[in-house]
Design the sequence.
């Protein structure tokens, strides 16, 4: 290949009439290259974009009341007919009033051992509370208290055997008709009293004298805190020189 006077190779800057139909008027055209394959590719790309845009637009603006039938033809739904004013082809379903059978309750017996109530056990018998120990009799016997005819005296019953006292004692001679004591209270029942009965009786009104009439019973308390009772069994003859009163006495020991 040879170059011309301008230094160009043969075939350069020549326009091909098949690709460019427009004449280019210029004093001098240099280095112009036209590629027909590239232009065709761009046009094809632009056309595909336009087709895709048109499909998206149609999909967005299509009527939702029109559905496609199984054979490809559009099927108009009742909603579409309502919109366009046409009567629907199917009548609305009428409400049914069929009664629903009541569900009967069922009782299920669980086989789980922990779901059943435990057997009822008999209540244990109450533990017996020991009451107070019975009080033993401290002393029981007969005494005679004397009056003015001899040494006037009485008896103290806090000893294993009663001891005489000069003019004084837990029980002492008062006069021909009475017996003296620190705390005496008459017992009116025909049966002899229990210790608890005497304690209750002495919790009320007490006196320092009890009647010396035969058969009279009264409760008394010793100076050591023991409780007892005495019954008048007789008196001496009406002798002012030697009066006396006979008593049957029982004294209980102290409460432990």
Sequence:
């Amino acid at each position: 290949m040879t170059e011309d006077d301008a230094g160009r190779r043969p075939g350069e800057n020549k326009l091909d009439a098949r690709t460019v139909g427009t004449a280019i008027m210029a004093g001098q055209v240099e280095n112009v290259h036209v590629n027909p394959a590239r232009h065709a590719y761009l046009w094809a790309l632009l056309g595909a974009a336009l087709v895709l845009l048109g499909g998206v637009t149609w999909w967005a603006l299509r009527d939702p009341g029109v559905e496609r039938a199984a054979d490809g033809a559009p099927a108009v739904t009742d909603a579409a007919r309502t919109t366009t004013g046409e009567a629907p082809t199917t009548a609305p379903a009428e409400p049914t009033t069929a009664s629903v059978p009541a569900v009967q309750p069922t009782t299920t017996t669980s086989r789980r051992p922990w779901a059943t109530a435990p057997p009822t056990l008999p209540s244990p018998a109450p533990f017996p509370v020991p009451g107070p120990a019975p009080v033993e009799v401290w002393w029981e016997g007969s005494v005679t208290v004397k009056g003015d005819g001899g040494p006037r005296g009485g008896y103290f019953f806090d000893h294993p055997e009663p001891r005489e006292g000069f003019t004084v004692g837990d029980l002492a001679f008062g006069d021909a008709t009475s017996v003296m004591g620190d705390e005496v209270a008459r017992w009116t029942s025909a049966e002899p009293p229990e210790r608890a009965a005497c304690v209750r009786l002495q919790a009320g009104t007490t006196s320092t004298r009890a009647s010396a009439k035969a058969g009279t019973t009264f409760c008394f308390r010793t100076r050591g805190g023991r409780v007892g009772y005495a019954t008048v069994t007789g008196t001496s003859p009406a002798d002012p020189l030697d009066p006396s009163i006979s008593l049957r006495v029982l004294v209980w020991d102290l409460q432990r």
DSSP finds three helices and eleven strands in the chain. The radius of gyration is 70 Å.
